[in-house]
Design brief:
Blueprint lengths: L10 E6 L4 H12 L3 E7 L6 H9 L8 E2 L2 H4 L5 E4 L3 H14 L2 E4 L6 H9 L6 E3 L5 H16 L5 E8 L9 H14 L3 H4 E2 L14 E7 L5 E9 L2 E9 L3 H14 L7 E2 L1 H5 L2
Parallel strand pairs: 1-2, 1-4, 2-3, 4-5, 5-6, 6-12, 7-9, 8-9
Antiparallel strand pairs: 7-10, 10-11
Helix pairs in contact: 1-9, 6-7
């Protein structure tokens, strides 16, 4: 990924949920990148100050300002990166809109009403939202859309994903992102073709369905497979993430790109990467 070369000074970044699994990865990655500087973090209102300090020190972060107040933690930031939960992210996005700063959102598990509320903040804050900030996954998304456009409904689409046992939403945001790409390629809406549950005597597979399979276990960062099963052949696309750092690097790249954009809509990684 080629970062914008017109940003001369380090970008000031705040990390929401800084002591979560992804939060700590973001903290470590921001600290290691000479193009960024970490200015603050946020945690839940009941956070233990000493425990937070100890967790941050495991990734080499010391003396970071941490608060549960969304407004305070972004006072000195130019961009916020948030991979928490929809409820937390909405509060952060609302504060970002008040302050007029960028927010990079990797949170998944949104309801339609939550997504609608998030969109309302895009008039005042530059928002980049993606189910996955990996460069490889975003290229995969384009490949899936192109394949779905070229292969007719005689090719059945199945999406399988696996994540660590702590993940709360299913299917994953990335799996749904890939499903949306397949649906766009077919000229349909995912909601009308999505099949997420098969149990018991379910009958034959309906033509045009987009199926999802979910696995959870261990500490798997993320594995996604998209299969086009047609007459006499199967075309398979696969992406495997070995480290959460791939998402952190993508989020930082997005934040630097966003610094040159204007509010008005929710941007995606396709916009960032010019796909």
């Amino acid at each position: 990924m080629n970062a914008p070369n017109h940003i001369s000074s380090p970008l000031k970044i705040a990390v929401a949920g800084c002591c979560g699994r992804m939060g700590l990865t973001l903290v470590e990655t921001v600290l290691a990148d000479p193009r960024t500087v970490l200015v603050a973090g946020s945690e839940r209102s009941d956070f233990d100050e000493m425990a937070v300090k100890a967790q941050l020190e495991t990734v080499g972060c010391r003396n970071l300002f941490v608060t549960s107040d969304p407004g305070r933690f972004m006072e000195s930031a130019e961009a916020v990166i948030d991979f928490t939960s929809p409820e937390v992210t909405l509060a952060v996005a609302k504060a970002a809109a008040v302050h007029g700063i960028t927010i990079i959102i990797g949170t998944t598990g949104w309801t339609a009403s939550q997504q609608k509320e998030l969109a309302s903040y895009a008039n005042d804050a530059v928002i980049i939202q993606s189910g996955n900030f990996s460069l490889g996954v975003n290229i995969l998304e384009k490949l899936v859309e192109d394949a779905a456009r070229q292969l007719d409904v005689s090719y059945d689409i199945e999406i399988a994903e696996m994540h660590h046992k702590y993940k709360k939403d299913a299917p994953s945001g990335t799996a749904l992102m890939l499903g949306q790409a397949a649906a766009r390629g077919r000229g349909v809406t995912l909601d009308t073709k999505k099949v997420t549950v098969r149990d018991g005597i379910v009958g034959e597979r309906k033509s045009g369905d987009i199926g999802f399979s979910v696995m959870r276990g261990g500490d798997v960062v993320g594995i996604h497979n998209v299969l086009f099963a047609g007459p006499g052949e199967v075309l398979e696309f696969k992406h495997q993430g070995f480290s959460r750092a791939i998402y952190a690097h993508g989020a930082i790249h997005a934040a630097r790109w966003a610094s040159q954009q204007k509010p008005g809509r929710i941007y995606s990684m396709k916009d960032v990467l010019g796909l």
